[in-house]
Write a structure and sequence with these properties.
With 204 residues, the protein is of the alpha+beta class. It has 3 helices and 13 strands; from the N terminus they run βββαββββββββααββ. 22% of the residues lie in helices and 42% in strands. The strands form 3 sheets. A 5-stranded antiparallel sheet has the order 7-6-5-4-8, with no helix packed on it.
């Protein structure tokens, strides 16, 4: 069993101009089976006490789901969504609470995107992570593990071929889900506009 103990610390230091500055830091101690696995891991720093307190609540209520993966870099999510855009997850920097995502080839939803990756603060931004094996329909496109499986035209063609109503992918996607379970053995779930379905290959 894994438990997290969070600590807020106030820091004062001399900056490059020899003036006294300060910031706030959020640390975590990771206990695994009541034994300390990681201690004093820096999760977030800010000059604002309020942002550090927000970070603390966000870790407790949401980000703790991914925290162990972030620290160990094992089984990281494969993609994330922010500002209605989907990115392939490249790096996670827990000490900065930042995530770096690469643009997904073929995704038609991007505007001006840095080809070397976009960096987002996942405390100050609302970032939704998707684990390996999760199919995501976003902007009428189908993504899996940071790759575009079907663009909007291809997805519409696929739905027509399997008699799936293209306008019901967010609440009645049974035929598309069956297709995914049958043709993509590593798929574990399906998400579209708040609707989700979780499954495994054995159910087919």
């Amino acid at each position: 069993m894994i438990n997290y103990l969070y600590t807020l610390k106030y820091n004062e230091y001399l900056d490059k101009r020899n003036q006294v500055s300060n910031n706030w830091s959020l640390y975590v101690k990771v206990l695994e089976d009541n034994k300390v696995k990681y201690d004093g891991v820096l999760l977030y720093q800010s000059f604002s006490e309020n942002w550090v307190k927000i970070a603390l609540e966000k870790y407790k209520n949401y980000l703790s789901t991914y925290l162990y993966s972030f620290i160990t870099e094992n089984n990281l999510p494969t993609m994330f969504e922010v500002n209605d855009q989907v990115f392939k997850l490249e790096y996670v920097f827990p000490e900065q609470s930042c995530v770096v995502g690469l643009p997904i080839k073929g995704n038609s939803q991007y505007l001006e995107i840095n080809p070397d990756g976009e960096k987002y603060d996942y405390v100050q931004s609302f970032v939704t992570f998707y684990d390996k094996g999760i199919c995501l329909v976003k902007g009428n496109q189908l993504f899996l593990d940071g790759e575009l499986l079907y663009n909007s035209i291809q997805l519409k063609t696929l739905c027509d071929s399997i008699e799936q109503d293209f306008n019901k992918l967010d609440f009645q996607a049974d035929k598309l889900i069956t297709f995914l379970k049958t043709n993509y053995p590593n798929v574990k779930g399906y998400v579209c506009n708040g609707f989700s379905s979780w499954f495994n290959k054995k159910e087919v």
